Amino acid sequence: MEESISRIGVNNEDFLVASMIDRCPKTMMLRELVQNALEAAVRAPAGARRVEIGAVQVDGARKLRIWNTGPGLDAEQLFLICDISSSVGKEQALDKNFGMGAKVASLPSNQLGLRYRSCASGRVHEVIIGKRDGAYGRLLRPDAAGALAAVRDVTEESRAEGRALDQDWTEVTLLGARPDQDTVADPYAGDPGVGRLWALSALQSRFYRLPDGVEIWLAPDLLAGRPARAFTPIATHIARRFARSEAVALANGARIHFCFDPQHPQFPDRNASQLDTLSPSQSFAALLRQDELYDVIQGKRWTLEAPNFGVSFGARHVSILVELPDDFPVFPETYRQFLRYRNGAQDQVKIQDFAALVRANRPQWLIDFVREQAPQVANLETIQQQLESLIESLGLTRRRPVARQPKLAATKPPQPPAQAAKTPAEPTPPPPERAPEDAPPDAPMRTVLESLPEFHMLRDEQDIADRNLTHRAARFYPDTHQLFVNLSYPAVAGLAELLASQAPHTVPPHEARALAEEAAESVALLRIGRALIFGLSKRSAEAGWSDAEKQQAISSEMLTLAAEDLMSSAPLAQEMFSRKLAERADGAAARLSEKEVA
């Protein structure tokens, strides 16, 4: 016998509607309104596909207005679209823009009212939805005959305002939370607050590409008084202004876009593509799906994360997009704030999830650029040997993919793997292999002897700030096995000052200072390196250490604390300094002898 069902109903409809609306992130409002406007405008005749974002006066207050061309809505359609999960001409599906979003995202900040007007066949109708007495709904107002109605004919009112009636259009006006609220400058009634260019920033961080032939125009009210201009999506900006971009196709259908925007020739703090303060100015990384950006990280957050993506240096000039195909197993969450995986847990999709794929697929020109940006460092072979001995004495191992072998203090980042690392020859059984780095995500795994991290010594103020090390001594990136050390950290400078003050008077001050800095930096590197290796050794602890505590053991905070007590290593530093002074004296004596012989 075939089973049937009795459909689940809604006992308290007002509560259900209110809960859906009040839980929506307010900052999704502009995205939803603009997306609806784009979908309507693309149905307008070629050459007339336009969206305008500007201001209109309502009862003496400035209100934000989103206007678009495209098929208008008659009175019946305008009434219907006010219902939750109702739309006109859209497919209802979880991964489609099916009509619920704009109302749900806008009403939390516009409980006074969200005013819809639409012109269809020369007639303009209006409806306002808002919140009254704890419930959301259409406001009932007197029509021309004096009867209360949800939808009013406002054709003559629109004509008096100078509105064109010879083409179809639709507009949404945000009335805000109170009559005197300026929803252009303060769309969320201060919660959250916004900057003067909030609308432009929101568009730039969401809409990667616009539908064919559609333009978005921003009024001077949204541009801090500058003349009206068309919005330039980031895809167009990259194509027109970036020095280089390349898309790498992956077997799973995804594409990784690597984009390069060099330093501005006249302004060191800008990238070359920046035209003015209204154009994009920061590199970024983001997910891209169906022409929209998700999980955008930019500015300091991007330069901090960039080493995980294989961009150890120069991230201020490199942007990375991971473009997911339509059939990739992800979908937008209910309010389209982020993507979720189509798995049981429906985990949130993060750009960091693709860092290994990005590293493994970097084009050669990007590898070369990162190498060129890496700072030059001194040879630290002695310290390397000491740290490697510590790793061996601890028997520190890790399961890692087979690929390249990093070197301590390399002056240039190494090349990506051409082939898997070779297994050492006899004796049998062979000793554990050194841990390789940066292999593709599907590379075979094996237990190997941990390799020494790749050290990067930072002196440049900007490089230090990019790693969030202005007030820290070091930061370790487990995924790429890289350690960045801040050589300008006060504890290092303090030890160098102490050593320089002990130099013989026969040594010129600038030479004494240089040798003292070398000794202090070597001791700092040794101390931080030992702290990191001991922290890494806790990964194999089977009891007493939680996963969070194991992460904390190699955190920037712990490495900084290890460097803080650098003065306790003063005897070692003095020994190094004395040896460097002796080497200097021997060199001077040899040069003098050669001169006398000549």
Give the topology.
Blueprint: H1 13-22, H2 29-41, E1 50-58, E2 61-69, H3 75-80, H4 101-106, E3 114-120, E4 123-132, E5 135-138, E6 141-142, E7 148-149, E8 151-153, H5 155-160, E9 169-174, H6 198-204, E10 215-218, E11 229-230, H7 234-241, E12 244-249, E13 255-260, E14 284-289, E15 292-298, H8 299-305, E16 318-323, E17 330-332, E18 339-341, H9 355-360, H10 364-373, H11 381-394, E19 397-401, E20 445-449, E21 454-458, H12 461-466, E22 474-477, E23 482-486, H13 490-501, H14 509-537, H15 547-552, H16 556-564, H17 570-597
Parallel strand pairs: 1-10, 14-16, 21-23
Antiparallel strand pairs: 1-2, 2-9, 3-4, 3-9, 4-5, 4-8, 6-7, 10-11, 12-13, 13-16, 14-15, 17-18, 19-20, 22-23
Biased composition (Low complexity): 405-425
Region (Disordered): 404-445
InterPro entries: HATPase_C_sf
Q: Quick one: how many beta strands?
A: 23
Helicity range? 25-40%
- Main sheet: strands, sense, barrel: 9 strands, mixed
**Shape, per Cα inertia axes:** elongated
Structural class: alpha+beta
CATH class identity of the largest domain: Alpha Beta
Mean pLDDT: 86
Structure notes:
The protein is of the alpha+beta class and 598 residues long. It has 17 helices and 23 strands. It has helices at 13-22, 29-41, 75-80, 101-106, 155-160, 198-204, 234-241, 299-305, 355-360, 364-373, 381-394, 461-466, 490-501, 509-537, 547-552, 556-564, 570-597, and strands at 50-58, 61-69, 114-120, 123-132, 135-138, 141-142, 148-149, 151-153, 169-174, 215-218, 229-230, 244-249, 255-260, 284-289, 292-298, 318-323, 330-332, 339-341, 397-401, 445-449, 454-458, 474-477, 482-486. A hairpin with a 5-residue loop joins strand 6 and strand 7. The radius of gyration is 31 Å and the shape is elongated. Mean pLDDT is 86; it is low at 90-94 and 402-438.
